[in-house]
Amino acid sequence: MNEISHARALSGTGVTATAAIHANLTAPGLIQHAMRRGEGRLSADGAFMGVTGVHTGRSVADKFVADDAEVTKEIWWGKVNQKLDPAKFEAFTADVRAYLGKQPELFTEDLYAGADPAYRIKVRLVTTNAWHALFARNMFIRPPVEELAGFEPDYVILHAPEMDAKPEHGGRPNSTTLIALSFAKKIIAIAGTSYAGEIKKSIFTVMNWLLPAQGVLPMHCSANVGKQGDTALFFGLSGTGKTTLSSDPERALIGDDEHGWTKTGVFNFEGGCYAKVIKLSREAEPQIWDASHRFGAVLENVIGDERGNLDLENGSLTENTRSCYPIEFIPNTVPGGQAGLPKNVVMLTADAFGVLPPISKLTPAQAMYHFMSGYTAKVAGTEKGLGKEPQATFSTCFGAPFLPRHPEVYGKMLAELIERDGAQVWLVNTGWTGGAYGTGHRMSIKHTRALLRAALDGSLAKVEFETEPFFGLSIPKALEGVPAEVLNPRGSWADKAGYDATAKKLQGLFEKNFETFAGAVSEDVKKAAIKAAA
After folding, report:
1. CA spacing 20 to 30 A to 111: which of 4, 102, 127, 462?
2. pLDDT tens track for 380-412
3. Which one is catalytic: 110, 248, 257, 351?
4. Which residues bind substrate per the record (predicted)?
5. Residue 237 is labelled as binding a ligand
């Protein structure tokens, strides 16, 4: 044990244990224990390689929220936030505590979520595995040693990945996995899944609950800042390039996934990055590559040979291979994780239909519409069970699975902040061009970076724009270094009639999705909505 009493290490958790407790160990100690316990192995470069078994991603269907009387009226109940009877939550957490208390050793980490001290919460993790403790330590903010002495948690994570949830715990029938959260009790209990992302996203859900009541917009976005102090936000679902594009050598990284927008600026929720690394290229993404090939990083479900040489092209375990590392592994970051008010907001989509422009300038009403839409498109190879045709995905506010409150709460806050702070909003397609998936090709990251840099440095706003007819988007007519046929996607298709038909199809999908939130937006947003052609 790290010279901390059992009582202090487990204070606030409800866990009673006589076992060895390894509290607040740093990366070397945690990796030493993980190797001793056979939890994984090291890559040739010293990164820890863990395998998560059956669950290689979040188990959305197994996430439940306790239906506590104090909060029930404010929660967005449904498929995202499934109700769990408070009595069953109590039974579940009691069993998780009992399970943890019987283990021969436990690992605890005391961490912060929120770089801004005014909105920070204290988190205590209790887990059975050293590598999960290292994941959390990499992912969240590590308090200075002098701040650990009086540390008392605001929220507790009880993490028992090898324990099976039971039917009486109230989760999904016939499932042994349960991720349960109580805002009233300030407890998260996780059982039956080793996928480390559940730890990260459970705290993101907590921040999404707490901050709106304090006048702060929590956002599923990355953020960076330029040399002139200009802050930019990057919204986008998995696979859209959010992490890649915000890790720009010419701009300082604030954070890669979760932020808050306050009256005075932007702050990171985390102290690390959780990057998707399938087919990661050193040439295209040197910062993420280097961060993933060093001691202290955690690699999830990444394949390596007997010597630990990584095969990042190999998705045999999952396409959702991940690297988790402290943010300081990226060379150009913002000390303290805070910066000024956003000047630009970028909404990323990977349009596999190949019909959206590579960049569009949005009006405030369009910005609200696309934020509430949260569009991207998945293709075969990104998820099991997908066929050859692209599948449109709409995740409101670019983070529906993590929104405990009604989406309009976040949407209205964003609209107010954009108007208040005068931020320019851009829609960027990092998906396909020249045809849909299977016919066209992925948008050149060189072109995307050129367009983004022009948007962020203000030069793009000075060029002439035109309105394309299908989605009502304002697109640049010309930009040095980017071919004209790329700027207007119809020009990149050899089959013009095929483009028109595909664009009309996507129009219809946008229109159908709009029905889910049309009643919660203003008339201006309704007028800006994409409508299917007659």
Report:
1. 102
2. 444 444 456 788 999 999 999 999 999 999 999
3. 257
4. 58, 195, 201, 322
5. yes
DSSP of 301-368, one letter per residue? S-EE-TT--EETT--SS-S--EEEEEGGGSSSB-GGGEE--EEEEEEEE--TTS-S-SEEEEPHHHHH
Q: Is 244 a known ligand-binding residue?
A: yes
Is 257 within any annotated ligand binding site? yes
Q: Is 201 assigned a catalytic role?
A: yes
**Tokens, residue 286:** 């040197």
Marked catalytic residue, from 97, 142, 242, 293: 242
Residue 236 assigned ligand-binding role: yes
285 among annotated binding-site residues: yes
Catalytic option among 72, 176, 238, 363: 238
Give the pLDDT score at 533: 66
Residues in the chain predicted with pLDDT less than 50, given as ranges, are: 1-3, 380-386
> Is there a binding annotation on residue 243?
yes
Helix (H, G, I), strand (E, B) or coil at 430: coil
Catalytic status, residue 220: yes
H-helix segments, 14-129: 27-36, 86-101
Q: How many helices (H) and strands (E) does the chain have?
A: 13, 30
Task: Determine whether 58 is an active site residue.
Answer: yes
**pLDDT for residue 382:** 42
Query: pTM, whole model, 2 decimals?
Result: 0.94
Q: Are 15 and 97 spatial neighbours (Cβ–Cβ below 8 Å)?
A: yes
Catalytic residue check, 63: no
Amino acid 328: pLDDT: 95
pLDDT at position 384, please? 45
CA distance 183 to 100: 22
**Catalytic hit among 201, 251, 370, 447:** 201
List all residues 6 or more positions away from 14 whose beta carbon is below 8 Å from its beta carbon: 93, 97, 156
Single out the catalytic residue among 124, 132, 169, 220: 220
Quickly list H helices, 221-270: 242-246
Q: Which residues pair with 426 in a beta bridge?
A: 346, 361
